[in-house]
Each structure stands twice: as structure tokens, then as C-alpha cells.
Amino acid sequence: MRCPYCRGDDSRVVDSREVEEGQAIRRRRSCSACGRRFTTIEELVLSVVKRSGVTEPFSREKVVRGVRRACQGRPVQEDALQQLAHKVEEAIRSSGMAELPSHEVGLAILGPLRELDEVAYLRFASVYRAYSSVEDFEKEIADLRAAREAEPVGEVADTGSSGE
Ligand SMILES: [Zn+2]
């Protein structure tokens, strides 16, 4: 890393600390040539391995694009897409893997997308899981219904309110 003042290419680290919960390291450096100080940030890069074997950095924007396509015409706000992408990234980072196959990214998208919008979820899943027949959709919809029924619905907690 060259000094931003004199372009000298030699510096020493005077301080380093972890930031973003250990996902990045911030280093304070002192240029050996001019003595001025500057800061560098070293970040853990999540790599996605595509089916072709090519590796590329994980991109939240790419997740948003993929999900946005599935959400066309659905009442889903841009905010919600950003939040979903954030959730996906968190899930991937917390898995502790530095490199993961692209289908794992798709897998991490399915859960939060199902909560966001069921139609968009079906669209996304149909591409991702390469549904080949109406039966595949029927099965997925049956699963959706089952999951919905398994959730407790609107039970109002008894607050044991005032006696007399
Ligand atoms: Zn310098």
C-alpha cells in the first residue's frame, strides 16, 4: 500500500485493531519515507464460487438484483430488498466460510424471501431449484401452506388484567 502523500511504498504498522466484529482490521501506518501517517482497512472478502469454477466477491447488490427480479409487480419496497440482502450477508458471514458455492447464496436467500413475499419466493425458488413441472410448484405450495399452518396465529396473550 503506497503512502497517499509521497507514494512511498514502505510503511510500518503503528496500531491495528479489529473493527466490524472482527470482519475487518484497521491499521494505522507510518510512512518510512515521509513519516506521515495514514490508515488502511483490511477486510475479509467473501468469495462466491460459481458453477463454472470462477470466483467472485460476494455482492449484496447482486442479491438485491436477483430478488428484485423475482419481486416484479409485488408490493415489496426497495428497503425490504436491502434488508433481505443484509440478512443474507449476515447469515453467510456467520457460517464462517470464506468461500462458498453460489448455490449456497441462493439457499440463504430462500428463507428470508419466503417471509417477505410468498409469490416472489415461488418465482425465485422455481428458477433456483429448476422446477420442471407443475407438480414441483404444487409441492412447494403445499410446503408453504404447511409452514403457514405450523405458525401460531394471532393468539392474544392473557394479561391477567385487573381484578376488582
Ligand atoms: Zn510518505
From TrEMBL:
Annotated keywords: ATP-binding, DNA-binding, Metal-binding, Nucleotide-binding, Repressor, Transcription, Transcription regulation, Zinc, Zinc-finger
InterPro entries, alphabetized: ATP-cone_dom, NrdR-like_N, RNR_NrdR-like
Entry annotated with the keyword Cell membrane: no
Pfam families attached to this UniProt entry: ATP-cone, Zn_ribbon_NrdR
Names of the cofactor(s): Zn(2+)
Domain ATP-cone, first and last residues per copy: 46-136
CC cofactor note: Binds 1 zinc ion.
Entry keyword Cytoplasm: no
Zinc finger (unnamed): 3-34
NCBIfam families associated with the record: transcriptional regulator NrdR
Purpose: Negatively regulates transcription of bacterial ribonucleotide reductase nrd genes and operons by binding to NrdR-boxes.
UniProt-listed HAMAP family: NrdR (MF_00440)
Family affiliation: Belongs to the NrdR family.
UniProt-recorded name of the protein: Transcriptional repressor NrdR
Naturally occurring in which organism (per UniProt): Saccharopolyspora griseoalba
Native organism taxonomy: Bacteria, Bacillati, Actinomycetota, Actinomycetes, Pseudonocardiales
